[in-house]
């Protein structure tokens, strides 16, 4: 079974803090994604990566950056957290050959 | 990203009922996907559709890829309590998915 893990299920941070969200997949997938999920808005793509050290902006990249130094790990960085970044963050991975994205359990981030 | 309109926003089910939800878009897609999210978990793929007009089943679930490529529906037959959760449609045109806002399914008391 594909396994996508995220470093924390719940996280509470203060405004202005630098926040790292980590995602690891164990199936050698080329593509990895970061989404945020907000009620009534569904899942919105923040960034994705199709290879090591490669990244592309999604629909809402402002206030975020990403890092992919190894194939299995994709990190989302909030350089200076703000209250409007309080949300559920979902990581996903996808092999090159299919449309199926496999999601992690999510990190619920609260910024105070 | 593309805008997907998913309806209904929420619904209550009674065990044994058939339920239905749909997604429409102003843009065409090459692939339609339906995901389900249980509380506290990430979404899990239920059904993938690759061809206009395609009708695909997965157990009690049936989904169709609309002929115009701008819509899709999902039916759940004979619902059971574990069907509760949030159902998302997603469409793919090029390299990324666009998601609907979700349909929250709750058991009617």
- For the report, how would you describe the main beta sheet of chain B? 6 strands, mixed
SS strand fraction of chain B? over 45%
Put simply, the count of helices of chain B is: 0
**SSE succession of chain A:** EEEEEEEEEEE
- SS elements, strand count of chain A: 11
Count of DSSP helices of chain A? 0
Distance between the termini of chain A: 37 Å
Question: What is the β-strand count of chain B?
Answer: 11
What class would the helix/strand composition of chain A place it in? Answer: mainly beta
**β content of chain A, as a range?**
over 45%
Low-pLDDT regions of chain A: none
Tell me roughly what share of residues is in helical segments of chain B.
Answer: under 10%
Short description:
Chain A is 0% helix and 54% strand.
Question: Descriptors for this entry?
Answer:
A: 112 residues, mainly beta, seven-stranded mixed β-sheet, four-stranded antiparallel β-sheet, globular, B: 109 residues, five-stranded antiparallel β-sheet, 0% helix
Descriptive notes:
- Chain A has strands at 4-6, 10-13, 19-25, 31-38, 42-49, 56-57, 64-70, 73-78, 87-94, 102-103, 107-111.
- Chain A has 112 residues and is an all-beta fold.
- In chain A, the strands form 2 sheets. In chain A, strands 2, 4, 5, 6, 9, 10 and 11 form a 7-stranded mixed β-sheet that branches.
- In chain A, a hairpin with a 7-residue loop joins strand 9 (87-94) and strand 10.
- Chain A is globular and about 40 Å long.
- The mean pLDDT of chain A is 94.
- The radius of gyration of chain B is 13 Å and the shape is globular.
- In chain B, a hairpin with a 4-residue loop joins strand 9 and strand 10.
- Chain B is mainly β and 109 residues long.
- Chain B is built from no helices and 11 strands.
- In chain B, strands 2, 4, 5, 9, 10 and 11 form a 6-stranded mixed β-sheet that branches. In chain B, strands 1-3-8-7-6 form a 5-stranded antiparallel β-sheet, with no helix packed on it.
- Chain B has strands spanning 4-7, 10-13, 19-25, 31-37, 44-49, 55-58, 61-65, 71-76, 85-92, 97-99, 103-107.
- In chain B, 34% of the residues are buried.
- At the A-B interface, strand 5 and strand 10 of A face strand 4, strand 5 and strand 9 of B.
